[in-house]
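Board notes (copied after class):
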Amino acid sequence: MANHDTDQAEGLRRMLERPVPRVFTFFSVLPDDEKGAMLINLAASLAASECNALLVDACMTPSSVLSRFGGFPVATLLDVANKDRHLDEALRLVPEGFALTRLSRKNVSMVPHPQASLLAQTFDKLASDTDITLVNAELSEYDNLPVPAMEMGEIVVHMSTTPASIKSAYVLLKDLSDRLGRRPFSLLVTGSSDAEAQMVFANMSQAANRYLAAQLNFMGSIPADEHIRRASGQGRTVLEAFPLTGAALAFRRLASQFSLSTLTKSSYGMAIDGASLGV
C-alpha cells in the first residue's frame, strides 16, 4: 500500500516545480504596425526558446497582429465562454510556433456580468495551459482591463525614445495608475540603442515614482533595425528572415529573460528577489 504522506509530498513537489504561467499585457504609444511587429517577433522568439507562448489580441480597433496571419480565427474566447463555439475554433497555431487567439469582437465592459465571469474563467484556463501569455491591449476612455488576470499580471508600456513617445507614455502611465491604483509597470523600448533606452527609463522612473507613486521596471530594448520592417514586408519574423541581425539577437535576449525557472513572482507577477527582465 502506498504511503499517503509520501504521495502527498510528491504531489506538492510537482506542483511547486511546475512553471507558473505568466500574463504580460502590452499597451503601446507607437503605431499599430510597430507594436504588432514587436509582439509577433517576441512571441516567435519565445517559441524558438521552447516556450509555450500564446498571443491574445484584446483590441477592438483593427489590429495588425491578427491580420498579419490572414485574418481572425473563426471564434473568439467570448464565443467559447458562451459555449457558442469550441476552443479549437478560437485558437490558431501559426507557423512561427506560437498560438494566436482573439478575446472578443465587442467591448468586454459592456458584456453582462455572468458572461464576463465566464470569459475570465476561459482566459484563466487557457493561460494556465501556457508558459507565457502576451496580450495586445488598448485602453479606451472608460474601460479597465478586460479580465482580472491581466491586471494581476505584468503590464508593459511599449514606447520609443522620441519626445512625443515619452510624453505619450507618461500620460498612459498616469491613466493606468489612476484606474488601477498603485502598482508596478514595465517599460519596453524599441527603435533605440540600449544606452538611450536606459537613459529614458531612468528619467521616467524618477518622474513616475515622484508624481505617480508608481514603480517602473526596465524590461529591455530593441534597437532600430531596418530588417524588422523588411521581414514584416515578407510576412516573416526577423528571427527567421535575418537571424544574425541586431534586432534578432535582441529579441532572443529578451525572450531568454522570460525563463520561468529563474523568476520569482510577486502578487503582480513582477520579478522580485533581485530577478530582472532587463536586457
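Comment from the instructor: The beta strands are 22-28, 53-57, 92-93, 99-102, 132-136, 154-159, 185-190, 216-222. The first strand starts at residue 22 and ends at 28.
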